[in-house]
User: Fold this.
Amino acid sequence: MRFWWVNHKQTHLQEIEGGYIWSPKNNRNGSRNQTYINLTKTTPGDIVYSYADGHIKAIGVVEKHCSGMPKPAEFGRTGDYWSDDGWLVYLNWEKLQNPFRPKNHLDILGPL
Assistant:
């Protein structure tokens, strides 16, 4: 089991509600992006921390291996500049009742 951190920006709500994380396979200019590639390295049972708006808001467990999938329709116009060709990982997300700011706990998290 491995642990992953995802920086959710524009599609946090759609991905948490939909039970997945998605990214394009490449940057807009066609170059590779290690963050995107990391989705392909997840395995069932891995833990994913969802960071959005400065808080850890949800924790998920990977349910299936990554697969190639088109951009989810529920993104609408969000991420129009992203390629439609992407990676998708299904997760069982658990929303935290008390989201927290990691920067307020660096004394605990730093040594990890």
Summary: The mean pLDDT is 93. The longest strand covers residues 85-100. Strands lie at 3-7, 20-24, 47-52, 55-62, 67-70, 85-100. Residues 69 and 86 are 5 Å apart (CA to CA).
